[in-house]
Design brief:
- The structure holds two protein chains of two kinds.
- Chain A contains ten helices and no strands.
- Chain A is mainly alpha-helical.
- Chain A has two domains: about 160 residues; about 170 residues, no CATH class.
- By secondary structure, chain B is mainly β.
- Chain B has a domain of about 100 residues: Immunoglobulin-like, CATH 2.60.40.420.
- Chain B has two helices and 17 strands.
- In chain B, the strands form four sheets. In chain B, strands 5-11-10-7-8 form a five-stranded mixed sheet, with no helix packed on it.
- Classes of the chains: A mainly alpha, B mainly beta.
- Chains A and B meet through α2 and α7 of A and β8 of B.
């Protein structure tokens, strides 16, 4: 066993991380298409063994839900292999346990997805969506720790990243995580758009949420195909989502300028911070587009995927900066 | 003795009928209803799109006549409970036809059978999303056997949906007494055989909310109109 760069193991971990990212996208499509319950049984699919469910029956919402299950099985298999591989070939004890943690998390995540179907509990979808984000960070962190940059960096000269900057990025990343939990709660209400205009909200900076106002919104808002009535809670939740988005935007701008000031414009982490800012700007644009498109499934799913990318970028930035700082010490 | 008892029962029944009347009325809509939306997701499903070669159907949230007659409003008496005759009532029917629920709005009693049919040659999943009754999610193959539902607790606009075809919805209001009706395309409703007395009458539209009015039912019944408005 050793902890030298192992290209096969590294690229396998990258494959697992990329597949996980695609799985989050497919999960986003399931929810965006309101297809989560289109296959009413689990672990079977319409009574078939999941892997033998005839392709001709992959129609409508079933297509999204069933392919999500199949891709989840692939991620489960890849994660299991990765955990065993790490256990056998990586000398770092903590890496071995990271592999085990990923394995346990993918099992929990699979069961949670199944229970959401079998128990018909929409609220479990919120946890399922949130754990998916943690799992993505974990798989990407494993890949980062297996990378040539990480394993060979002990011999390279590095510049420490100031603690204030690292803390700032960590807090903004945690805020993005909170934002994704809010988003998961919004999506798993399955009520369509709670506020139908942007940048204003029902023509105001902060919309009224009195019973009369909510009744008026329900009577006059353009009917989506779902057409459920919205509640004051849902309106307030979307407003909080918007406010947190602005806070994240300011936080990431600050992170990029701080990185430039403290590390220099040419530093890799500074460039990575600018990329993070670009993601956040794109994400705000996609959020607006989600509203303007009346929550079109493809736009909303792209919003989910860029949101996951923004969280991941913050987490990997922090991890890389912590690594650099430790080596510089 | 038996004959006397029978006469007494018949007499009481007749007396009850004398002191029962119909509650009637008309529901009208004032203002401009929001435009209905074309069910564009149907386009993404070739099996369903072929059912509509001449154009896609639209949502039917506001069924309004030329003179403002508003259909699909559930009108019921408030404050009555545990008077359901649902167990002996004729079953109500909900069909899935052309990848749509028909009708989209329906009202039944607690304990009354609701038969869900699938007239399509498509698989549907019948997914109920109640707030007071247990949730269920059942497969119904194309042209497959009917599914039967009963609900024990009253609730307004219990949602039925199909997740295979996510534009398919129906809303079933469950009432625990027989004193309810739904407005027809002329906006008219009739609640039959309401015992004489004072009641609160509620009119509920799924998008326009609810309104109430106090009514006194006499031997010749009572009349009460409602006007819904979008301000």
């Amino acid at each position: 066993m050793n902890n030298k760069y192992n290209p096969a193991l590294f690229w396998f971990a990258v494959l697992n991380a990329v597949t996980t990212f695609l799985l989050i996208g497919l999960g986003g499509l399931v929810t965006s298409h309101e297809a989560g319950m289109s296959v009413p049984d689990w672990p079977n699919s319409y009574g078939y063994n999941m892997f033998l469910f005839p392709i001709k029956d992959w129609i409508g919402g079933i297509f999204y839900e069933h392919t999500h299950r199949l891709l989840a099985s692939v991620v489960g298999l890849l994660t299991t292999i990765l955990a065993v591989w790490l256990w056998l070939k990586d000398s770092r004890k903590w890496m071995q346990w990271l592999g085990i943690a990923a394995f346990l998390l993918v099992v929990v995540q699979g069961i949670l997805g199944g229970l959401r179907v079998d128990l018909r509990m929409a609220a479990l979808g919120i946890f399922h969506g949130t754990i998916a984000q943690i799992f993505l960070i974990l798989t990407c962190a494993i890949a980062l720790c297996l990378s040539r940059w990480w394993t060979n960096s002990e011999t390279e000269k590095t510049i420490a990243v100031p603690r204030g900057l690292r803390s700032h990025v960590l807090y903004v990343t945690l805020l993005i995580f909170v934002q994704l939990m809010i988003a998961a709660t919004m999506r798993h209400q399955h009520a369509g758009l709670a506020i139908t205009d942007f940048p204003l909200a029902y023509g105001k900076i902060w919309p009224a949420t009195t019973p009369e106002a909510i009744a008026h919104y329900n009577a006059t808002r353009p009917p989506g195909t779902i057409g459920d009535s919205i509640t004051a809670f849902q309106v307030n939740l979307q407003m909080i989502h918007r406010c947190v988005a602005y806070a994240i935007f300011l936080g990431v701008i600050a992170a990029a300028f701080l990185a430039k000031k403290k590390l220099g414009a040419a530093d890799g982490l500074t460039k990575f911070a600018w990329f993070w800012l670009a993601l956040i700007i794109a994400q705000i644009g996609l959020g607006a587009w989600t509203v303007w498109s009346n929550k079109a499934a493809d736009v909303t799913t792209l919003h989910v995927m860029v949101g996951a990318s923004a969280l991941l970028t913050g987490a990997l930035w922090w991890l890389a900066s912590a690594r650099r700082t430790k080596l510089a010490a | 003795m038996k004959k006397s008892l029978l006469l007494i029962v018949l007499g009481l029944f007749a007396a009850a009928q004398i002191h029962a009347g119909d509650v009637t009325g008309t529901i009208t809509f004032k203002g401009a209803a929001p435009a209905e939306k074309e069910l564009t997701p149907i386009k993404d499903d070739p099996n369903c799109a072929m059912l509509y070669p001449a154009g896609l159907p639209k949502t039917k949230f506001y069924v309004v006549g030329a003179n403002g007659e508003l259909a699909d409003v559930i009108v019921s008496l408030k404050g009555i409970s545990d008077k359901s005759t649902g167990a002996s009532a004729a079953p109500a029917t909900l069909d899935q036809k052309g990848a749509l629920y028909v009708p989209q709005i329906i009202a039944i009693q607690t304990g009354q059978k609701l038969i869900v049919k699938n007239s399509d040659q498509l698989v549907h999943n019948v997914h109920t999303q109640p707030t007071a009754n247990p949730e269920s999610n059942q497969v119904q193959m194309g042209g497959g056997p009917d599914l039967t539902y009963t609900f024990d607790k009253p609730e307004a606009f219990l949602k039925f949906k199909c997740d295979v075809h996510p534009w398919m919805f129906a809303w079933v209001t469950v009432v625990d007494h027989p004193y309810f009706a739904m407005s027809d395309k002329d906006g008219k409703f009739t609640i039959k055989n309401v015992p004489a007395g004072k009641y609160t009458l509620e009119a509920a539209h799924r998008k326009l909310g609810t309104q109430t009015a106090e009514v006194e039912v006499k031997a010749d019944g009572a009349a009460q109109n409602f006007t819904f408005e979008v301000k």
